[in-house]
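User: Modeling request: complex.
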Amino acid sequence: MSEPVLRVKDLRTEFAVRAGIVKAVDGVTFEVGRGRILGLVGESGSGKSVTGYSILGLIELPGRIAGGEVLLNGVDLTKLKGEQIRRVRGAQIAMVFQDPMMTLNPVLKVSTQMIAAVRAHDNVSRKVARSRARDALATVGIPSPEERLDAYPHQLSGGMRQRVAIAIALLHKPAVIIADEPTTALDVSIQGQILAEVRRLADETGTAFVWVTHDLAVVSSLADDICVMYAGRVVETGAAADVIASPRHPYTAGLLASVPAEHEPGERLPQVPGSAPSLANLPPGCAFAPRCFKAGPACNTTPPVQHFEDGRTALCHYPIEPDSCQPLSSTSTTYQNAS
Amino acid sequence: MIGFFIQRILQALLVIIAMSVIVFVGVYAIGNPIDVMIDPASDQALREALIQRYGFDRPLIEQYFIFMGNMLRGDLGESFIYRLPVIGLIFSRMPATLELAVSAMLIATLLGIPLGLWAGYKPDAISSKFIMGLSVLGFSVPTFWVGLLLIMAFAVELGWLPSGGRGPVTDFLGMKLSIGSMEGLSYIILPAFNLALFKLGLLIRLTRSGTVEVMSSDYVRFARAQGLSERKVVGLHVLKNISIPIVTVFGLELGSTLAFAVVTETVFNWPGMGKLIIDSITVLDRPVMVAYLILVVFLFVLINLVVDLIYGQLDPRIRVRAAS
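Assistant: Request completed. Predicted assembly structure:
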């Protein structure tokens, strides 16, 4: 793997709320190489979206970045202020949001919004900006882009709007695009088209993607690498194929076991017992321990980062041994018994 | 679009007819204008003669149809008191109210929108809290009282501005206006500011709440993620999105200011339409009342029509609904 374009080191983001300080992102570390797609996976509230916002410096009060580094081609974005970070956003690192109904301004034409995005970084005429916007729409596979430019967002379908959002993210050929669950609100068929488009873009343009999602099916078909988050921490990393084939962290195993496609219709779906803990009130030590089938006495203390072959890591006292070679079904049995 | 217009004009006609019936019957019920008009000592014969002359002896319904028939010919009748055509009477007073109302709306808009934007953009700043405090005062303190205080402060104590009246007027497009000369302007400042206060408070709050809502929206976050400057975010995304409620309130307020600037006009002795209508009500000058209220309805309908047209320009989603 070449030198990573984006390297997040020990990132910490905190929110000061009435109940105290919530560590939404607690020491997250990962990296993405040129043209690669990293799947950032986790349940709701695991801190994956906040990680995305933190990378772009879009955290608003009462939140703040409490520590760590976000190195984009060696420059620490957390140290940039005001105009400096504005010049980076959209130009070198862009973001696509979850709900395409909400990310485009309903009362402005697509062209108005795209031209503003072009001119935020390049001092070009409106005409040049418009033709670049048209090219970007064509790149993401929008038919008759010239007409779409004059449309208002409500005149486009959800999938079309998300393509427009991705086209806006692509306008300045950024090194990295953070995509925050961009296909969650879309039909499965549209989702498939967009995933294929993203894979092609990553390969052709060399843009790296951080694909934030809770959907393992999406990750397995799209991502090169996976980073699993739980309660603000990274619990497992590794190549996507490896992690899915043999998860090392019990939480990842539980997530994988609960994918419906792996089971007979009518069969009771295994689930990870309990629900994600409140970030304001985390148990000491491993946050996942209360829900874990492998939890032991050591889990009251902060788990170590264990390193395995092929650069894989897991944040666990008792990682699943590949030797025991537990097939998915046995893991799921374990979870069924536990519930 | 033409269908929309025709529909609107028919609605307006219905409102005008309904309103004229209500006013006509209402004023009839209040009492006989003759009793107010003539010397109580005059004899019965004179009384009868006058009643006959004004047609008060005929049934109400007949009086109404005669009035409406005349109106269709463009004749709104003659004031019982001034003995002048009502139309001319109202139009002679209109420029004064018009310039007062427009000046007040200008003050309210030019101050209110920027202040509201600031208060919504930085909701936690001390300055924003101060602005919001002022806005509460603006629409909760009675207009007449503020008017009196303004006169006390700027006319009596400081002596900077005149305490009332309209001052010299200049001719502009056939209307006599104060705002044409510096001296005329000095007469309009206090009443216009007084009239603007309520609208100022309203516009500040409206702009602020819209700004707070839009600033927390996904599309503003997305715009920031694209690297748009804060000026662009506010100027492009926020202003366009908050303009619809602002235009609505602006239209309503402009209408009600034109029609009912009575209190300020009275406090500052401003010779506008408001004073005319109040005087007419005291003496039961029915033609003036009915004609004035018909004019008010017409103004409101016209303003609302313009507001509706502006909506379509501001929000494309409304255009779609209107078309379907």
